[in-house]
């Protein structure tokens, strides 16, 4: 008997985006999808997530979804037919072309696999513009190659390490994509200000009290001067990126002001812990070097 309850439990209504997940372990998704921002987004109907058990689409009493590979070798391979039948239920009338190159209109089919394109924020933004996604969580030695040929539009990896299956990567994709949908975050600015949103790491954050254990919040953040706060945050975002992920600067969209700040760091160094000192240098309110200083910097792409 099919475990249709999972579809009803994990279903939203009238959503901005629908995401279908094909998996051997649907029970893994209940907690993460019901909690925090993603849980509220689903409850509000902003995103619909439907989890399907691949075993529900098998045709034998043992619900066999995998088999030994042709040609021998270790491990098992996910069978093609149960996945094809699952897609039959999601997109009735789809069919493969003679060469096996047919894809499914109206949705983007993604296979979570270590062989895929590494997930980054640019890819997340692109996926967030889709109306419907289907995520296939890989397992064992992978999936029958005919699934790749007939269904898969894109393969995605979340990193160069080994996991038991594709369920956790699928959850990562769902969470990262959903938070970019309109209305999911409390403030639209939140998604724009986070790390990687503009190609840089995010600036440091502080909250009350203003001082604890001898550690004080930088004075500029207590000043109420919005432009000074903006400049401090941008400065610390650049500092943190230069210290921790300098390769990101090669693709970041940098202004003339950013170039000048980076040249200043290059000349004066970027001492660890400067962000939290509350000193004038950390406040980012000192005079900026003239515009010509940043004109020839090799770091990043200029945005005039």
Quick recap:
With 304 residues, the protein is an alpha/beta fold. It has 11 helices and 11 strands. A 5-stranded parallel sheet has the order 2-1-6-5-7, sandwiched between helices.
Summarize the structure in words.
- With 304 residues, the chain is of the alpha/beta class.
- It folds into two domains: 174 residues, SPOUT methyltransferase, trefoil knot domain (Alpha/beta knot), CATH 3.40.1280; 108 residues, Orthogonal Bundle (Trp Operon Repressor, Chain A).
- It contains eleven helices and eleven strands.
- A five-stranded parallel sheet has the order 2-1-6-5-7, sandwiched between helices. A two-stranded antiparallel sheet has the order 3-4. A two-stranded antiparallel ribbon has the order 8-9.
List keywords for this structure.
304 residues; alpha/beta; Alpha/beta knot; Trp Operon Repressor, Chain A; five-stranded parallel β-sheet; two-stranded antiparallel sheet; 11 helices; elongated
What low-confidence regions span 5 or more consecutive residues with pLDDT below 50?
Answer: 1-13, 96-102, 270-299
Second CATH tier, the architecture of the largest domain: 3-Layer(aba) Sandwich
Counted up, domains total 2
* Helical segment count: 11
N-to-C CA distance:
61 Å
**CATH H-tier superfamily of the largest domain:** SPOUT methyltransferase, trefoil knot domain
Principal-axes geometry comes out as: elongated
Outline the biggest β-sheet.
Answer: 5 strands, parallel
Proportion of residues in helical segments: 25-40%
- Give the CATH class of the largest domain: Alpha Beta
Mean pLDDT: 83
Strand arrangement across the biggest beta sheet: 2-1-6-5-7
Number of E-type strands: 11
Please tell me how large the radius of gyration is: 24 Å
């Amino acid at each position: 008997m099919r475990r249709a309850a999972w579809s009803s439990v994990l279903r939203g209504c009238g959503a901005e985006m629908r995401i279908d997940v094909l998996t051997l372990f649907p029970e893994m998704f209940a907690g993460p999808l019901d909690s925090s921002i993603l849980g509220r987004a689903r409850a509000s109907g902003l995103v619909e997530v439907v989890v399907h058990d691949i075993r529900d689409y098998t045709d034998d009493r043992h619900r066999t979804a995998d088999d030994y590979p042709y040609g021998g070798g270790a491990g098992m391979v996910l069978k093609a037919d149960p996945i094809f039948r699952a897609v039959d239920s999601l997109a009735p009338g789809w069919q493969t072309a003679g060469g096996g190159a047919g894809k499914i209109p109206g949705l983007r089919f993604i296979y979570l696999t270590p062989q895929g394109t590494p997930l980054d924020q640019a890819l997340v933004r692109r996926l967030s513009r889709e109306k419907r996604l289907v995520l296939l969580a890989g397992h064992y030695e992978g999936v029958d190659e005919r699934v790749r040929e007939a269904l898969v539009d894109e393969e995605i990896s979340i990193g160069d390490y080994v996991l038991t299956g594709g369920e956790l990567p699928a959850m990562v994709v769902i969470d990262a994509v959903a938070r970019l949908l309109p209305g999911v975050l409390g403030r639209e600015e939140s998604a724009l200000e986070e790390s990687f949103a503009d190609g840089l790491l995010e600036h440091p954050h502080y909250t009350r009290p203003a001082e604890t254990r001898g550690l004080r919040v930088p004075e500029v953040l207590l000043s109420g001067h919005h432009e000074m706060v903006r400049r401090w945050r941008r400065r610390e975002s650049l500092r943190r990126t230069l210290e921790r992920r300098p390769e990101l600067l090669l693709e970041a969209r940098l202004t003339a002001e950013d170039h000048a700040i980076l040249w200043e760091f290059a000349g004066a160094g970027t001492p660890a812990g400067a962000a939290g000192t509350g000193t004038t240098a950390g406040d980012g309110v000192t005079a900026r070097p003239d515009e010509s200083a940043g004109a020839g910097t090799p770091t990043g792409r200029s945005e005039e």
